[in-house]
């Protein structure tokens, strides 16, 4: 995601002011749809703020002083510091949101299992609609179970481990080992899973468009990362985040 910049390359285009004094949000009071919206908002702002730092030629760990200890004069130090503080706050908020999302999903599935096991309320009547999750919450929880796509296969090299596993260009990744839509962290966790499982099969779930219709089919694959297959990398495919 890019951001538009004025002629002054140091001018921020996103809110990155200090957050001191602002009351922390209580994410426990948010519904599942609201948590998802908050997750997407935080990720979008983090990406924009990262672009602000990049426009200064720095990152979260770059030194703001010269080799002899003087403040650098080639960057707006106050702007960089303020942006870094905001990024730290947002990262903490993102962790809290993800924790509440996972807890909400677990609670929802536990409720479904209890309802299926009991079949009815203790007095023999059907459970009231007031005790049931909303349609939106159910759809989000079901998506967590099925694996909402979080990446697309951009290319697959012939003869690669990905090709041998049956992965195809255009496939939408729903799960990659233990990595899914809630924890992939812009595919960084996929890279970790690949590195940690070299020579061992990983279960990959994909959604694939049926050539004979506009429908999609769900496909489960066993993909084993390995070297020396004749090309670069351990997989031989390129994934792009959705």
Characterize the structure shown:
The chain is of the alpha+beta class and about 240 residues long. The protein folds into two domains: about 30-115; about 150-240, PDZ domain (Pdz3 Domain, Roll), CATH 2.30.42. The protein is about 40% helix and about 15% strand. It has five helices and five strands, in the order H-H-H-E-H-E-H-E-E-E. Strand 3 and strand 4 (about 215-225) form a beta hairpin. Residues about 1-20 and about 120-145 have low confidence and may be disordered.
Under the CATH scheme, which architecture of the largest domain would be assigned? Answer: Roll
Predict the CATH topology of the largest domain: Pdz3 Domain
Residue ranges: pLDDT <50 for 5 or more in a row?
1-21, 120-146
Instruction: Please trace the helix and strand order, writing H or E for each element.
Output: HHHEHEHEEE
- By CATH's scheme, which homologous superfamily of the largest domain applies? PDZ domain
Structural class: alpha+beta
Distance between the termini: 12 Å
Based on CA atoms alone, the radius of gyration comes out at 23 Å
What percentage of amino acids are in beta strands?
5-15%
Total helical elements = 5
Apparent shape:
globular
Number of strands: 5
Helix content: 25-40%
Mean pLDDT: 77
Biggest sheet character: 5 strands, antiparallel
| Order of strands across the main sheet | 4-3-2-1-5
Tally of domains: 2
User: At the first level of CATH, what is the class of the largest domain?
Assistant: Mainly Beta
């Amino acid at each position: 995601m890019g951001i538009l910049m004025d002629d002054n390359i140091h001018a921020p285009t996103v809110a990155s002011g200090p957050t001191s004094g602002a009351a922390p949000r209580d994410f426990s009071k948010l519904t599942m749809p609201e948590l998802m919206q908050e997750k997407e908002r935080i990720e979008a702002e983090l990406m924009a703020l990262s672009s602000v730092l990049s426009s200064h030629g720095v990152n979260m760990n770059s030194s703001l002083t010269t080799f002899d200890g003087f403040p650098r004069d080639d960057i707006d130090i106050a702007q960089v510091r303020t942006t870094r503080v905001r990024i730290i706050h947002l990262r903490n908020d993102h962790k809290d949101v993800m924790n509440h999302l996972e807890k909400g999903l677990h609670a929802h599935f536990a409720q479904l299992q209890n309802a299926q096991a009991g079949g009815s309320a203790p007095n023999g009547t059907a459970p009231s609609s007031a005790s049931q999750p909303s349609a939106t919450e159910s759809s989000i929880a079901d998506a967590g179970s099925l694996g909402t796509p979080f990446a697309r296969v951009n290319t697959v090299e012939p003869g690669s481990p990905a090709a041998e596993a049956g992965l195809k260009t255009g496939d939408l990744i729903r799960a990659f080992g233990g990595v899914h839509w809630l924890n992939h962290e812009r595919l960084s966790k996929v890279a970790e899973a690949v590195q940690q499982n070299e020579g061992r099969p990983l279960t990959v779930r994909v959604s694939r468009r049926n050539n004979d219709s506009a429908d999609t089919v769900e496909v489960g694959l066993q993909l084993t990362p390995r070297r020396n297959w004749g090309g670069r990398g351990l997989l031989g495919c390129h994934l792009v985040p959705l």
